């Protein structure tokens, strides 16, 4: 904050605006942008791993594994995402606390489930009640990463499964005719070409993932949408920086932010696809 911001009520014009935009709450909003980027970067690898495992499971010749992969993709795709974002993190959080309870508080004989209440000992809390705010926010962010990875991993698995089947069968048969094993055919022929068919679908999933980041608020993480609503709402004279309802301008800024992010992402995927498909004709 600038030195002349000591008495904001005496300021006006650009001086008032410069002080207003550098308040601690606005700094938290700017930091929330990094949280959005951090989430997007943190979930890429888990999503691809879960997607690849799910796609291979659906290709498996073992009935149990094939049905497991099919069940994972079908259930997640068939249930609204918001249900998973509300249920899965809560279930995971309570599961961790329950395991900590039965290992750390063996002397506590009261049941954990008491009607509608879930009660564990203080030592089993995750994180502990005495932990700082950073640990609580970090735990909430970790749950968000797991929830996003689980949900979007299923969609990625379905995309990769379709891409694997899109590789021309004639090329796989030719590879086997030249003496390649099933493993060699998969890694040398099917896998490299599979990504060409998967890229359009993966780019769409990335766009959907970007649009889903406001769901962080459901998981207890104060994201950029939360701060836009909080800071943009009308502030009366009891506040240091009083202003009318500015939510339109805050959400307009969010609109520009998300459109810019998706536009840059689309240009990025277009260049990757152009480079990857250079000299290759995608015909069946």
Given helix and strand content, the structural type is mainly alpha
Number of helices: 9
Morphology call: flat
Number of strands: 2
Radius of gyration: 25 Å
* CATH homologous superfamily identity: MetI-like
Strand order of the largest sheet: 1-2
Q: Considering DSSP H and I runs of 4 or more, what fraction of the residues is helical?
A: 55-70%
CATH architecture: Orthogonal Bundle
Largest sheet: 2 strands, antiparallel
Unreliable sequence segments = none
Termini distance?
A: 62 Å
Query: How do the helices and strands follow one another from N- to C-terminus?
Result: HHHHEEHHHHH
Annotated CATH topology: MetI-like fold
| Mean of all residue-level pLDDT scores | 84
Strand % is under 5%
CATH class placement: Mainly Alpha
Write the layout of secondary structure elements.
Elements: H1 13-20, H2 24-59, H3 63-78, H4 81-104, E1 113-114, E2 117-118, H5 133-166, H6 169-177, H7 182-212, H8 224-232, H9 247-276
Antiparallel strand pairs: 1-2
Helix pairs in contact: 2-3, 2-5, 2-8, 3-5, 4-5, 5-7, 6-7, 7-9, 8-9
Give keywords:
flat, MetI-like fold, two-stranded antiparallel ribbon, 284 residues, 2 strands, 9 helices, mainly alpha
Can you walk me through this structure?
By secondary structure, the chain is mostly helical. It has one domain: MetI-like fold (Orthogonal Bundle), CATH 1.10.3720.10. Helix content is 69%, strand content 1%. Helix 3 packs across helix 5, helix 6 packs antiparallel against helix 7 and helix 7 runs antiparallel to helix 9. The protein is flat, with a radius of gyration of 25 Å. It starts with 12 loop residues before the first helix and ends in an 8-residue tail after the last helix. The mean pLDDT is 84.
